Amino acid sequence: MAKRSYTKTPMREQSPELRKNNFSEVALGYNLKEGQLEASRCLQCKNAPCIQSCPVMIDIPGFIKQIEAGNMKAANEVLRKYTNLPAICGRVCPQEKQCEMTCRLGRSKKFEPVAIGKLERLVADWALQQPIETVNNPKNKGKVAVIGSGPSGLTAAGDLAKLGYDVTIFEALHAAGGVLTYGIPEFRLPKEIVQKEIETITAQGVKIETNVVVGKTITMTEIQADFAACYLAVGAGVPNFLGIPGTSLNGVYSSSEYLTRINLMKAYDFPNYDTPVQTAKNVVVIGGGNVAMDAARSAKRLGAETVTVIYRRSKEELPAREEEYHHSVEEGIDYHWLTNPIEYISDGAGKLKAVKCVKMMLGELDESGRRRPEMIDGSAFIIKADMAIEAIGQGSNRVLLDTFKELQLNQWGYIAADLTTGKTNIPGVFAGGDIVTGAATVILAMGAGKIAATQIDNYIQNQKLRV
Ligand code: FAD
Ligand code: SF4
């Protein structure tokens, strides 16, 4: 047997020089030979720790073993038992903080962990090339409504349809997918892939009604009357703002607006699509998460000469995925660590001209367990900018919540649902994903969807026994 490589099998990528001028996917995927080579690094551990640290507990050694044998059909069958969206997870999940972090090979110090996410992507992309299988199991166990078509809603809907439920997803926007469609850019997650994954779910009999804002177009009372149970998965899509002077200047954006224009409305292809987006020479992005990276890298692709990310903590605390940060640096994005904006400065005609910032230092631990950033007196300085994009987190969307007063919320304004069951204070109404946890990750939202599907099944079957 060939000697096990210390490092992961590299994945081919578009060069930074080329990709910073286009919106095509950066990472190009493994071919079968590369996948088999990487799969052969797996130790096939007994009691595999990688499974335990996957929020949907995928049989990771199981599908990797099939790749090594070159049996993609069997690998796909293993994967599909656990996840409805593997091509998406393989691309955007923070594997380095989950399955790959506990991989026994990686913990041996000399070796990098198995590239589990890249192998998942290989299998899922292979499956998407095959004809979509229609699942015609009878849908006679009851009607379930799912509100929101992000990863949480899609996962719950797919699992419930497999269990024999007649599922309708109601989605406020004109396209399904939630953040996968309107937030994460094409160069990280091609919309064609999202679309195909959604088609595999509708092929199981799930119906999706777009342009339906629950709370406006249709009320929760109407939904509760028509469906045996419902799952609220409306996400946390409302942007937070810093609220510093100058926020209303032309050129100051929320990341939500900026990315939605670019992704959902395809502004990067204007005028072929009819939504424009402002282009700028010098862009400042505020924040340190994946959303900030996405906004910064999009601005670069739209032609900005300089893009500077300002983050109030240090690089060690950066919440973005390591890979996104690394790619952004390769593409020429600059970073100002321990920096906070305090004012947007006008050019005198209502447009942004510069961002006034201060330097920060890290003090005592705060309630999040991270050292609290504190302003250094007399450290103010100016960064020239004709665009600033705030990517400082999102909060709950109020449209549904404000019209459904019986539903209990927690102290942060999210739905108070039990994380282990998805149950809310109202019988038959379940909730999960970002609207319960606050902005989190795709895989956690999917995990919540899986739990909810099982619990909704239990709930409806118990109701039937009572009658
Ligand atoms: P969402 O994906 O937000 O979906 C909720 C859906 O509900 C939306 O389609 C919305 O239109 C719909 N809706 C809302 N209100 C109503 C209503 N009243 N009626 C009908 N429909 C309604 N996570 C990762 O794991 N990796 C990443 O790399 C990553 N990058 C990200 C980049 C960006 C730019 C953003 C914004 C987030 C990113 N995340 C990432 C986080 C991840 O996308 C979210 O945690 C996840 O999408 C949450 O899923 P969800 O199903 O709970 O909600
Ligand atoms: Fe393979 Fe790593 Fe999982 Fe062990 S922990 S089975 S080496 S992926």
Written overview of the protein:
The chain contains 18 helices and 16 strands. By secondary structure, it is an alpha/beta fold. It binds flavin-adenine dinucleotide (FAD) and iron/sulfur cluster (SF4).
Q: Which properties best describe this structure?
A:
467 residues; alpha/beta; 5-stranded parallel beta sheet; 16 strands; 16% strand; globular; binds flavin-adenine dinucleotide
Topology readout:
Elements lengths: L15 H4 L12 H8 L9 H4 L7 H9 L3 H11 L3 H7 L6 H4 L13 H13 L14 E5 L3 H12 L3 E5 L8 H4 L8 H12 L4 E3 L10 H7 L2 E4 L5 E2 L12 E3 H9 L18 E5 L3 H12 L4 E5 L11 H9 L3 E3 L2 E8 L5 E14 L5 E5 L5 E4 L2 E4 L3 E2 L2 H5 L26 E3 L2 H4 L4 H25 L1
Parallel strand pairs: 1-2, 1-4, 2-3, 4-16, 6-14, 7-8, 7-14, 8-9
Antiparallel strand pairs: 5-15, 10-11, 11-12, 11-13
The site of flavin-adenine dinucleotide has 41 residues, from helix 9, helix 14, helix 16 and helix 18.
Compact summary:
The protein has 467 residues and is α/β, with parallel strands linked by helices. It has helices at 16-19, 32-39, 49-52, 60-68, 72-82, 86-92, 99-102, 116-128, 151-162, 179-182, 191-202, 220-226, 255-263, 290-301, 322-330, 398-402, 434-437, 442-466, and strands at residues 143-147, 166-170, 207-209, 229-232, 238-239, 252-254, 282-286, 306-310, 334-336, 339-346, 352-365, 371-375, 381-384, 387-390, 394-395, 429-431.
